Structure prediction request, 271 residues.
Amino acid sequence: MPSRGTPHGSSADRGCWLARRVTTRLKRQHAPVVGTNCGGFTLEAALGVRPNSIAGPDFAGWEIKQHGVSNLERPHNGTLTLMTPEPDGGWYKDRGVESFIRTFGYEDTLGRVDRLNFGGHHNVGSINNRTSLGLALVGFDSVRCRISDAAGSLDLVRADGTIAASWSFAKLLNHWRKKHARAAYIPSLRRTGEVIAYSYGHKVCLGVGTSFELLLGALDRGAVFYDPGLKLEHAASAHPKTKRRSQIRVGFNNLPDLYDTFEYVDIRLPS
Prediction:
């Protein structure tokens, strides 16, 4: 019988489960981590990687990206987070994340009291119905698929021209080149219950070689998008609590377009 919380037919029924954990910053020790989406932290802990500890690749020259799936035998679907860069311009930068959420966010859709959220897909060339904001690429020639202004930016804009948040090309370029020259995408399955645990699949994807123009072109086409997970809890209290999560994401089927070569590999088989 499958373990509790494990989908039927998954190879994880016969595999190894790792309790959610994180590698501490000061010592290379494992510690429990709070939250239900901790597959990335748990994989990094198994590899001895401290979260966000270096600007370059995570492990042995590779950027390690886990993505949650419902079946490890069919892992090539869903949506993945490419990077989580904080804005370096706009209202968000100038007035802070709390003011940003109060101005552009909305009441929690699940009815959780005294909480404001800011989330949802934001694509270049379209407006998000809930936030009334859209993405704009400034300084990118979509016809030639090349940068036309090195001082350009990815802007989150309101109809009246207010820039809610902005990411300079310089910031995005630095992160993309350092972290995504070689990237390994590893599927994970989450088991719920008394102890949340993760199992990782043997069918992985390897992306090698990229350019900043490939990323900007995918943003321009809507294949890559801004999909944040910001929240403000205890909003009416004297001590509100914010959570920052500015995510640049992509659908799995669009991943190959971001790399010079993209290979599907079964790591159980000899190379």
Remarks:
- Confidence is low (pLDDT under 50) at residues 1-14, 22-31.
- The first strand starts at residue 18 and ends at 19.
